[in-house]
Amino acid sequence: MKEQLYPYHINFLVSIFNLFDVDPYIPTRNQDTTMWSQQFSGTLSERDCQQHIPHQFDVPAGLTALIIDYEYSPAEIDGFKNLCTLSVYAPDGCRGAAHRDPKKQHIVISSGDSTPGFTSGAITAGRWQIDIDSHMVLPGEPLRYTLTISGSSDPQSAAPTWTSSITAPRGAGWYRGNLHSHTFHSDASMSATDLVRWARSENFDFVALTDHNTISGLAQMDSLGADDLLVMGGIELTTFYGHALVMGVRDWIDWRVRADRNMLDIQREAEARGATFIIAHPFTPGGKYCTGCHWEYSEMMPGTARLLEIWNWTWDGDSNNQDAVELWYTWLNQGYRIFATAGNDIHDVPTEPLRLGFNVVYAQELSEREILAAIRKGHNYLSSAPKLNFEGRTLDGQTILLGEQLPAGTLNLDWANCGDSDLGKLIVNGQQAAVFAAKSAGSLHWTPQPDWKWAVVEIRDDQGNLKAITNPIFIG
Ligand SMILES: [Zn+2]
Ligand SMILES: [Zn+2]
Question: Are 61 and 41 in the same domain?
Fold first, then answer.
């Protein structure tokens, strides 16, 4: 289905002003050359929720900056937030998104320094489009907005340039790090510099930036690695019916699900570009609480899904992660080879110690390509502290890694860095097959029974909160 222009009950005003017009919406910038402006306004109701509402306009030649002023109200109804964010499309491609909460935004997109969330570069003449992405329009009082776009041909300061960093690959081994984080290029308070500093304080080997629906922070992120820390790139597709991490890309991925483009199409497109696709936090409550946060794509339950973030943020007291583990076990029992990931989903520099889950990956080298290749094969476990080595040993002495198939032989587990009251569990075919007091360290061996299809190790504290979990070893 083709998108209609202005299909909603928007009462829009479109005005084009010349040099001598006075427009109260033009921001107070030093615009001594071209003055051009266009204004839209509209009213949205509950039935306009979860739409990409386009506003098209023709940008004249010779501009160096577009200035967008956007405002809407009410901010909240009965304690819940409206959320209508902006995405901007130039004739030659997406220029970014402002996936963030403020109800009054001033955005500059220019050939110089642009507002975080948007990429700098030439202001191409031609048909542009700004979408209002109506993540939440609450029932009750209608939402009223104004969107004013003005142009400047003032000289702009030079855009910042970043030189990509190089991390020495280091060779095959275990590497730990985070696959899911945000900066102020979307809705976080952290800068990329803050994120990388925090990752170093956690002694991570790698950290990925995955801002909501924008790649504008990745160039700076790519400049911040060194031999001690690999920086990785991605984007969190923050759709109306679920979030997905697309890892290993530097180009924008069109996150808009439409009648003619479902999540399978988006996954296929991302993977064709070499990306790794992970369903994020499938059980985070959606609706008024966090529109789109709950995974609702029936075509990927699991369909072609191969990676599932079962551990988002901290585990403590959080049943949403437990629900994700149970869904994953169900899919494994159905015969799907789906692997688990952890994602800190960090937005702010933590002010207190947090028990966040991270990934410990056996990769051929410390590089984005090899870390993601290992994740796709399930060569990783998730942990907030415990160190695990869970592997199979074939009858002729071959080692079988997490995510691989053990035809016959033994399952061997070594662990360390656990707590005195922690319990270890061997989970087979989704059921508890053995339980043991973990103490600080130890090792165990099991011989698989004929009906064993897959095995996972969990480490839990005395409250039942997960502290570590492996990917499965398939058996038989
Ligand atoms: Zn998310
Ligand atoms: Zn996120």
Answer: yes
Contact 368, 179 (CB under 8 A): no
Six token digits for residue 84: 């209508």
For 284-337, write each residue's pLDDT tens digit: 999 999 989 999 999 999 999 999 999 999 998 777 999 999 999 999 999 999
Q: Are residues 345 and 436 in the same domain?
A: no
Kindly give the residue spans of alpha helices, DSSP state H, lying in 13-105. Answer: none
256: domain CATH number? 3.20.20.140
> How far, in Å, is the centroid of ligand 2 from the Cα of 438?
32
* C-alpha 158 – ligand 1 centre gap (Å): 33
pLDDT digits (tens, 9 = 90+) for 40-57: 999 999 999 999 999 999
Residue 173 sits in the same domain as residue 316: yes
The answer, yes or no, to whether residue 372 has pLDDT greater than 60, is: yes
Structural domain of 45? 36-152
Ligand 2 centre and the CA of 242: distance in Å? 11
Same domain, 138 and 278: no
Q: Hey, what amino acid is at 74?
A: P
Q: Are residues 402 and 330 in the same domain?
A: no
Does 127 lie in the same domain as 182? Answer: no
Q: For 137-275, list the strands marked E by DSSP.
A: 143-152, 173-178, 206-212, 230-239, 242-247
**Token digits for 419?**
């707590």
Asked if residue 464 and residue 400 are part of one domain, the reply reads: yes
Q: Residue type at 153?
A: S
User: How far apart are alpha carbons 294 and 209 in whole angstroms?
Assistant: 21
| Run of H or E including 341 | strand 339-343
Q: Ligand 1 centroid vs 103 CA: distance in angstroms? A: 20
Ligand 1 centroid distance, CA of 145 (Å)? 26
Q: How many CA atoms lie within 13 A of 336 on its CB side?
A: 19
Please tell me the distance from the alpha carbon of residue 338 to that of residue 138, in angstroms, as a whole number: 36
Whole-angstrom distance, CA of residue 354 vs CA of residue 25: 45
- The total of structural domains in the chain comes to 3
283 Cα to the center of ligand 1, angstroms: 11
How many whole angstroms separate alpha carbon 129 and alpha carbon 177? 38
Is residue 16 in a domain? no
Assess whether 346 and 304 both reside in one domain: yes
CA of 236 to the centre of ligand 2 (A): 6
* Ligand 2 centroid from CA 1, angstroms: 30
- pTM assigned to the model: 0.92
